[in-house]
Amino acid sequence: MRRGTLFHKLLLALVISVSLPVVLLGYVSYDRSKDQIEEVARVFLSDNVNQNAQRMERVLTDAESLSEKALASQELQQLLKSPSPASFSDEIAFIQEMNTLISELKGPYELYVFPLQIDKFPNYANLLQYKQVSPSQELYDEAAALHGKGFWTTGWNEQWKAPDFIYVRQIRTLDNFTPVGVMAIRIPQFMIRDQLIGPSLYPQAAIIIADGDGRILSHEDPSQYGQPSLLKQGDSSYLHASLQLSVKDWTLSILLPRADITANLQKVQRFSIWMVALSLLLIVLLLSLIARSFTNPIKQIISYMKKVRIGQLKPMPEQDRQDEIGQWIYGYNAMIFSLQEQMDTIREMEKEKNDLERQMLILQINPHFLYNTLDSIKWKAQAIDEPVISEMVTRLAGMFRFTLSDGNGWTTVEREIEHVKNYAAIEQLRNPGQFKMLYQIQSDLLGARMLQLMLQPLVENAIRHGMNKRTDGRGKILITAMIEDEHIAITIADNGPGAQGGQSEGIGLANVRQRLRIYFGEAYKLETESTEKGYTVKLKHPLLPADAAIEKLDRSG
């Protein structure tokens, strides 16, 4: 006997293969080594970016100190406060004097001075344009808005094919702080890059300076100027360390490809991959051995299920298995036995239904012919002034009209009651004064659908076995119909002899009982009660709306 469930077998195989010590050791060692190396790299990059930020700040501070020196120059103040040149020679003298002052003040960087009214110095403006420095109104406006404080900006140097760092500051008089010009200190990118020291352990690391929008201001590749940085793009393939500079919202960052960090772990990684591959191979082999123990029974079950689809209900041979496969085979056989029982029941019910339909066909005896003949008799009786015969024939014709109305075996409660009234009227005409008919019908039920010819056999049984045995003329038949627990409850009660008279069921009651069972199941049936005071039949019928899809309720169809 095979012990253990299929789940336990698969779990055992997975535990044995996945928990191999070598695979676990390889994975853990590689993962932890990678994390440790990345952490060391982060610390190293953080130290490096701090050092470079200090170097960068010194360059920026030197440029700002140079601007202070220029602002303090009395000669520059006097030259900018002097009237605009009235002639070409005056402008040449201004240019020569300005160049002399700039040479004395500029230090290691390029210094440019723009008079407040640059348009009155056309030759000086052309000279500045030749040096690729062109003051704009925006530059004047931004410098004026800072009231003597400077600001940093960048620009593209077409001559060097690289960006420049430019410090701009308004020049004001020392006595009353009146604006007289603007100065610009231009630092080429190479002078900035020369101050930055990359991490020696990681030659692929990139040092960048970016603005607040993540646009690159400085990169070892000048073509990257103005492009969004990798940090802005959210590239996770790089480690980085960043530090905010004192200038505007500029940021100094160092980016290091993760591939450079893990380069030394390639051997460990390859070893781990090989171990994982061998582990997976072992898993496949173990699972294939286990799968063979249950795939063959599954194939056998599938072959039997294919036979079920073509109508061959055959159970599988019993197998001595206690796992899920054995339970599956047991459940399949139980389903087959249940289907066989249901098929036998359906065939039996179909046979009973066909027998009932044949009985109803025998009783109908060509209702079209009878209806037309009775209609002719009615007219003959009226012609010879025989109202009783005419009434009986009219009622009988109404009964036959009822049987011809639908032709599908269904009617409404209202029409079924009308059919009963026609039948009872004929019996009352045959035996005047023998019994009375009483009706209590809930108005909500009149339009409800029900099987045809369900009540007339019950009334016929009450008249034949109840009313015909009373000779005192006090016979009564009460028909009540109401909604009870979401179904139709119709009761036919008479005050016949009941149990003392030996009243019993005839063919009509048996027919009604079988039709209820066949169409609606065992829940809907006839209930009879016989006492000394009379005989009662209660019919339980589903409550169906007038527009219900009745054909779907035919259980045997």
Helix count from the secondary structure assignment? 16
* Category by helix and strand content: alpha+beta
Distance between the termini: 47 Å
Strand content: 15-25%
Q: What does the largest sheet look like?
A: 5 strands, mixed
Helix fraction, binned, reads: 40-55%
- Rg over alpha carbons: 55 Å
| Biggest sheet strand line-up | 10-12-13-15-14
Q: Mean of residue pLDDT?
A: 78
Q: Based on CA inertia axes, which overall geometry fits?
A: elongated
Unreliable sequence segments: 361-366, 549-557
How many DSSP E strands? Answer: 15
Explain what you see.
- Strands 10-12-13-15-14 form a five-stranded mixed sheet. A four-stranded antiparallel sheet has the order 1-4-3-2. A four-stranded antiparallel sheet has the order 6-5-8-7.
- It has helices at residues 6-18, 21-71, 74-81, 88-105, 122-130, 137-145, 189-195, 230-233, 258-261, 266-309, 324-364, 367-383, 387-405, 413-430, 456-465, 507-520, and strands at residues 110-115, 151-157, 162-172, 179-188, 206-210, 216-218, 238-244, 251-257, 410-412, 435-441, 449-451, 475-484, 487-494, 526-531, 534-542.
- The protein is α+β, with helices and mostly antiparallel strands.
- Helices cover 51% and strands 18% of the residues.
- Helix 2 (21-71) packs across helix 10, helix 12 packs antiparallel against helix 13 (387-405) and helix 14 (413-430) packs parallel to helix 15 (456-465).
